[in-house]
Amino acid sequence: MTGLAGSEDAGVYKISDDLALVQTIDFFTPIVDDPAVFGRAAAANSLSDVYAMGGKPITALNIVCFPSKKLGLSTLRRILAGGLEILDEAGVALIGGHSVEDDEPKYGLSVTGLIRPDQLMTNSGLKPGDVLILTKALGTGVIATAGKASAASEGALKAMVDSMCSINKAASEAGVSIGAKAATDVTGFGVAGHLVEMARASKALVKIDSAQIPLLEGAIEAAKNGFIPGGAYANRKFFSSWISLDDGIPMSITDLLFDPQTSGGLIIGAPEAVAGELLKKLENAGVSPLAKIGFVESGHPDGLVEIS
């Protein structure tokens, strides 16, 4: 049902009229010093692709690259324990994994989920009139970069960790419950890059109000002080061909639009008639912060994102 086309977040394979498999894999290097936090963030990030499709993750396999002689197995145990905490919270069974010796630690999961084919949410599902709702604040990339220079406050670091370790289960279930057909999760390409993927896959003109996008505590300060990760510059260079940016947007906000996120929230495209119901369901489920950040104005042959 989904594969390489459309830059979808996971592959979906139909088994029967009422059942399909969702499969994904994700892993990365540490962005925090605490091994358990790294494990939790990596696991939440890995599950997110299944949630973005509207699926229910059911099993996971650990993927580990680790310098055991240099860092010791106690550190690895803390990483894996952190990942298991998130899997337990999500109700996902860890059924195995694979490890290799590597000079640089890396951790993540291969995740399998289930979905009803008629409840699938995709990048290509946007329709004119859809309202775009974002379910987490931005800023994990700039805060992590500031943190490496000991230039992030305790409050900012806590906000980053809490966001990264929060799973998108409730947001996904709310989207499915109102019949949403379009969603993605915000990760390495930043909110601007993932909006471009949706616009291009849906052949849509998307309009975004940057003032409505929620930001993590300390994110704007980190951006203003120049703690911009290299990935943000790469995102801007790659995706700018499909983005129209208003000249009045402050540079710090623009940087945050391209800021690569770790375990970010979902962008859900909901028909205007049910957008209010979706917001209410998200609020009742404790999803916060969340915001209406824009809408789909019309079709567009190449896909375009206009940000004001």
Gist of the model:
The chain has 308 residues and is α+β, with helices and mostly antiparallel strands. The chain has eleven helices and twelve strands. The protein has a seven-stranded mixed beta sheet, sandwiched between helices.
Give unreliable regions as ranges.
Answer: none
Strand percent estimate: 25-35%
Rg result: 19 Å
Look at the structure and give the mean pLDDT.
97
Spatial ordering of strands, largest sheet = 7-10-6-11-8-12-9
Terminus-to-terminus distance: 35 Å
Q: Pairing-aware structural class of the strands and helices?
A: alpha+beta
Largest sheet: number of strands, sense, barrel closure: 7 strands, mixed
Q: Mind explaining what this structure looks like?
A:
Helix content is 39%, strand content 26%. It has helices spanning 35-52, 68-71, 73-90, 140-148, 154-164, 169-177, 190-202, 219-224, 230-239, 251-258, 272-284; strands spanning 11-16, 19-28, 56-66, 93-101, 106-115, 131-134, 182-185, 204-208, 243-245, 266-270, 291-299, 304-307. The strands form two sheets. The protein has a seven-stranded mixed sheet with strand order 7-10-6-11-8-12-9, with helices on both faces. A five-stranded mixed sheet has the order 1-2-5-3-4, covered by helices on one side. It is α+β, with helices and mostly antiparallel strands. It has eleven helices and twelve strands. The chain is globular. A hairpin with a 2-residue loop joins β1 (11-16) and β2 (19-28). The mean pLDDT is 97.
Question: Could you list some keywords that capture this structure?
Answer:
alpha+beta, globular, 5-stranded mixed sheet, 7-stranded mixed sheet, 308 residues, 39% helix, 11 helices
